[in-house]
Every structure is written in structure tokens, then in C-alpha cells.
Design brief:
single chain; 486 residues; mainly beta; Porin; 16-stranded antiparallel barrel; two-stranded antiparallel ribbon; 9% helix
Length: 486
């Protein structure tokens, strides 16, 4: 396998050369699953950008950071008399559709939600679990988007899903004068490649090109009907996450295809319900919440290694809660999330290996929840650890094994016994377990997935965790998925 190109060119011709070099370096294996919009736009096999959907290769990360604009389609163009380009539109719109059909079975059936002492059906088919329509690709020169509109088979409604609109541009930066003179005296002049960009999105970390952060992290698909732990950090997925309830604008830089830095700000952007937002809405962001991201990627031969850090600080009005409605003024709950992550990849024609890990520490100042009787402590903390190892042979068959753990401060009001499978008799957020997965890709745009999620602790305990006689292992989940893109 050839070494990854050291730099991307700023001219169209050299950019296309870089693309061809990347495709050649990734080899002839073309079995991968990706949003077909990008394949239509670029004319490239999905394996250029992806290992297993939605995990990105180094080239896939470059494509995303550069604004999704690389294309190989005929353009509709417009220019002024001064030769200023006013339009650069793909003649064929890069639209695609994704459908997921799933089967879920838990180790023990869940209690019936309407009849006391009865059990719900165990063995749930969702046809579909999810259907998404994407616009993914170029809007204009240097401007592109990933827009996802999703139908949820459980909630039975359409809504805006993960969305990232970005503008990106390369700027050549020369070495400092003394260093440049020294380099010139040795027969060459060093320059740095600096990519600067703007991102407008609705989910902190959805704009991130590494799969070690929550929005695109493992597991890439999971059951939407199986029980899940009752606590998660605000930056994580799951209960309490701010993703898709916020809108953010940020600026980023990517220096020499190695150093990444981003600073964004998020504010409340809830869909549905009362508008302007009022006390009938829950978990509403106050003001602007900062989000930051810094990391470094090193590439050599068939390998790449990234390590970084990210975080946010958000202030939230509880709004409507189980105890009633609370106005969007007065006390707020403040959450500070600080995280570290790492991603390693080894990619050859036959073998693809990825190792992902992230740790999130959340500090909670619960002024509002304490005042409204929703929390017993003025401050709590939460710790989240996730680690995954993945392997794929020729992007045809693969597997993954992951572990996860959430732990934090005991709080009998925040994590209360409520008589349901989501309760916590111990009043703690502690959950931990493992995920085993097998994947088979018979066609370029089709994925068959078998996943098993096992719990050794759930919402605070391993046995009778909710005070209703249900053990953590009762929530172990077998999940089958057919995932197609077209």
C-alpha cells in the first residue's frame, strides 16, 4: 500500500491527482457502505472514504473537512461581467435514501406499559426502524452540506436529523522569514497548507471527522426499542444529550493535514411544541454554549493515529419536568463536559483495523434541579468510558467488540426508583457492559448486522436494579439489522 499523500494541492488538476492516488492506495477492494450521494458526486467507490459506514478513512476525513465539495459532475455555472463566479451547481443533485429494517429481542420481555403484571411482546420487528433522505454534497464552490431528514418508525414522524453545512478554503502559509531563508539556502522553500472553515450544524461532534466522538461513534446502529441506561453526558448520545436540540456555528482550522482546532457556539433550537420557547419545553439551553475541539493526527504507511480533546459548558433550564412546569428564567443547571479521545487505523487492501476510545467527565451544578426538587445534591459528576476494536476483511465481512461504562455520584432524586425498567433502586447512574457485532456486506450498498449488547450493571446494580425484580442481564439485547442505501 502506498503512503498517504503528504499534502493536498490547491489546484484542480493536482487535487484530482491526489484523489486518484488515494483510490490507488486504498486498493481494489470496493465493498463498503456509504451515503450514495457522495459516490454520485465524486464518481468514486465508497471505499475511498469509508471502512465500515459511517467510519471514515484518512481521505474521507479530508473530504469532510474540505466541505464535501470534491466532484466529478457536469456543472451549471454563472458568472458576472467581471468574471466573478455566482453559481457552481451540480447538474445532477446528489440525493440518496437510507432504509433500516430491524429485529430486537431482549433476554427477558419488558413489563406491559398498560396492564400491571403483564408482559409486552418480546421480539420486535420494525419495518422500518428508520428511513432517511440525504442531500449530501456540493452547494457552491467551497460550500457543501450533509443534510439528513429522517422518519422514525417508533415515533412515527419525520424530523431533521444530523446536519452539517460548511464552508472551507485552503490558505498557503510560508515559514517564518528566518526559517524560509534557511530552507531556501538548502534549495527549497517550505510552505504549510492551512485549511480554514466554518460549520453550521445541529449536534456537537456531528461535524467531527473522527469516529471516536459521540455523534458518529460506535455502535453505528442500535435498537431503538430496547432499554438503555438512564444517564449520559450532555455531549454523549442518549438521555439528556443536547444533540439535535441545538444549533451551532463554529470556525476550524486544519494545519498540514495533522493539527485540528475548532471553536463553536451553540444555542437552543428545538423543533415542535410552543414557539417562542416557553415552560412547556424541557431542557432548553440558556444563551450560547461554547464547544471546543483540539487534536493531532499522524499518518505513516498504512497507519494513522489521532489523539485529541473536546468539551463544552452548557446552562439548561429544566422547563417542563415530572414535577410541573418551570419558567425559562431564574436558576439553571450547568454542565461542564471535558473529554479525551484516540483513534488508530490500519488500512490495506485486505485488512482494516480500527481502535477507538473516548472518556468524558461531566461536572454538574444542579441549582435549578435542586430548587425544584429534582436532585438531592447541589453538585454531581458523571464519568463515561467507551472503547472499541474493529476488524474487516476486504470490507466484505467484519466484526467489532466494545466495552462501555458510566459511573457517577449517587443522587436518589436525579436517578430515582420509579417502578419502571428505567428506574434505579440504588439511586446511581452506574451502568456497564459490552457490545459484540458481526457485519456482512454482500453488495456495495447493503449491510447485514448482528449485534449483541450485554449488561453487567444497569442503572446502579446487577440484580434487581429497579426494585421490580429485574436484573441487568434481563436487558441484554439481540439486534438484527438490514441496512440499505440507494
Amino acid at each position: 500500500m502506498r503512503e498517504w499523500p503528504a499534502r493536498l494541492s490547491r489546484s484542480t488538476a493536482l487535487t484530482l491527482s491526489c484523489v486518484l492516488s488515494c483510490v490507488l492506495s486504498l486498493g481494489a477492494a470496493t465493498r463498503a457502505l456509504a451515503v450514495p450521494s457522495f459516490a454520485r458526486q465524486t464518481g468514486m467507490a465508497c471505499s475511498a472514504c469509508h471502512t465500515m459506514i459511517p467510519e471514515l478513512t484518512p481521505f474521507g476525513r479530508e473530504f469532510k473537512l474540505n466541505g464535501y465539495v470534491l466532484d466529478n459532475l457536469r456543472q451549471i455555472r454563472g458568472e458576472t461581467l467581471e468574471r466573478r463566479q455566482t453559481l457552481a451547481l451540480n447538474q445532477l443533485s446528489p440525493i440518496s435514501v437510507m432504509a433500516q429494517i430491524s429485529y430486537t429481542r431482549t433476554s427477558q420481555a419488558l413489563p406491559d406499559s398498560g396492564v400491571s403484571g403483564a408482559l409486552a411482546k418480546d421480539g420486535e420487528v420494525l419495518f422500518p426502524q428508520q428511513v432517511s433522505v440525504f442531500y449530501a454534497g456540493k452547494i457552491a464552490n467551497n460550500l457543501g452540506a450533509f443534510v439528513q431528514l429522517t422518519y422514525d418508525g417508533v415515533a412515527d414522524h419525520f424530523g431533521l436529523d444530523n446536519t452539517d453545512i460548511r464552508y472551507a478554503r485552503h490558505i498557503g502559509v510560508a515559514e517564518p522569514e528566518g526559517a524560509a531563508d534557511a530552507a531556501h539556502s538548502r534549495g527549497f522553500l517550505q510552505r504549510h497548507d492551512l485549511l480554514v472553515g466554518l460549520t453550521l450544524n445541529n449536534n456537537p461532534t456531528v461535524q467531527d471527522p473522527w469516529n471516536s466522538t459521540p455523534a458518529w461513534g460506535f455502535p453505528y446502529a442500535s435498537s431503538s426499542v430496547a432499554p438503555s441506561p438512564n444517564a449520559s453526558a450532555r455531549l454523549d448520545t442518549g438521555a439528556g444529550a443536547i444533540g439535535q436540540n441545538a444549533a451551532g456555528l463554529g470556525a476550524y482550522l486544519w494545519l498540514d493535514h495533522s493539527l485540528y482546532a475548532e471553536l463553536s457556539g451553540y444555542t437552543a433550537a428545538k423543533t415542535g411544541g410552543a414557539h417562542p420557547l416557553d415552560s412547556t419545553q424541557s431542557a432548553v439551553l440558556r444563551g450560547v454554549a461554547p464547544y471546543w475541539r483540539v487534536g493531532y493526527e499522524y499518518r505513516w504507511s498504512a497507519n494513522s493515529l489521532f489523539f485529541g480533546t473536546y468539551g463544552t459548558q452548557v446552562s439548561i433550564y429544566p422547563g417542563t419536568t415530572a414535577t410541573g412546569a418551570h419558567s425559562l428564567s431564574g436558576p439553571v443547571d450547568r454542565y461542564t463536559d471535558v473529554a479525551g479521545d484516540i483513534e488508530y487505523q490500519y488500512i490495506t487492501d485486505d485488512h482494516l483495523v480500527t481502535v477507538l476510545a473516548t472518556y468524558i467527565h461531566e461536572n454538574q451544578h444542579l441549582d435549578a434541579s435542586l430548587a425544584y426538587g429534582l436532585a438531592a445534591n447541589p453538585t454531581d459528576d458523571l464519568h463515561t468510558i467507551k472503547a472499541t476494536a474493529e476488524y474487516s476483511y476486504r470490507r466484505l465481512i467484519g466484526g467489532a467488540a466494545g466495552v462501555f461504562s458510566t459511573s457517577g455520584s449517587p443522587d436518589p432524586l436525579l436517578y430515582a426508583k420509579d417502578g419502571t425498567v428505567n428506574g434505579s433502586l440504588a439511586g446511581t447512574p452506574d451502568s456497564r457492559g459490552y457490545i459484540l457485532e458481526l457485519d456482512y456486506l454482500p453488495f456495495l450498498n447493503t449491510k447485514l448486522q448482528l449485534q449483541y449488547v450485554g449488561y453487567t450493571k444497569f442503572n446502579g446494580a446487577g440484580t434487581d436494579y429497579a426494585g421490580i425484580g429485574r436484573n441487568a442481564s434481563a436487558n441484554n439485547t439481540l439486534y438484527l439489522l438490514l441496512w440499505v442505501n440507494f
